[in-house]
């Protein structure tokens, strides 16, 4: 009984904490929205993320801060959950978590796996402008 109560309390607490998607203007991946963003031709970024991944956790603040920067305001940003969006990951040819993919004009122009340095992520995003 005690273990169940702890699980319920942890789930309730997690629901109150804003996700990266909420905090950085990113949206959770949905195929129809992602395809529409690509078809529009503007810059798009997809981040393959897992809550439990230390590299992903290190990428989040840098990516969030950059997406709030006016230079990258035109980006449509999508968070792809590593644990639940396997079909999306196959479509993106992204088998690994902590992958950041940048699109411009509906086509992939840059990709990085494991980059956590803000300058490296900024250079990656700049390729989408």
TrEMBL record:
Q: Where is the Thioredoxin domain?
A: 5-129
Give the matching InterPro entries. Answer: Thioredoxin-like_sf, Thioredoxin_domain
Q: SUPFAM superfamilies per the record?
A: Thioredoxin-like (SSF52833)
- Signal sequence span is 1-23
Pfam families attached to this UniProt entry: Thioredoxin (PF00085)
Source superkingdom? Bacteria
UniProt-recorded Gene Ontology molecular function terms: isomerase activity
Keyword list, A-Z? Isomerase, Signal
Q: What is this protein called?
A: Thiol-disulfide isomerase/thioredoxin
Organism of this sequence: Hansschlegelia beijingensis
């Amino acid at each position: 009984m005690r273990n169940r109560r702890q699980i319920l309390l942890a789930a309730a607490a997690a629901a109150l904490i804003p996700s990266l998607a909420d905090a950085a203007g990113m949206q959770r991946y949905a195929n129809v929205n992602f395809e529409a963003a690509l078809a529009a031709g503007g810059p798009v970024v997809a981040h393959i993320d897992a809550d439990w991944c230390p590299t992903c956790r290190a990428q989040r603040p840098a990516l969030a801060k950059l997406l709030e920067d006016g230079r990258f305001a035109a980006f449509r940003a999508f968070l792809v959950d590593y644990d639940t969006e396997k079909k999306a990951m196959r479509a993106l040819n992204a088998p690994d978590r902590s992958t950041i993919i940048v699109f411009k004009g509906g086509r992939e122009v840059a990709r990085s796996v494991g980059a956590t340095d803000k300058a490296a992520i900024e250079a990656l995003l700049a390729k989408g402008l």
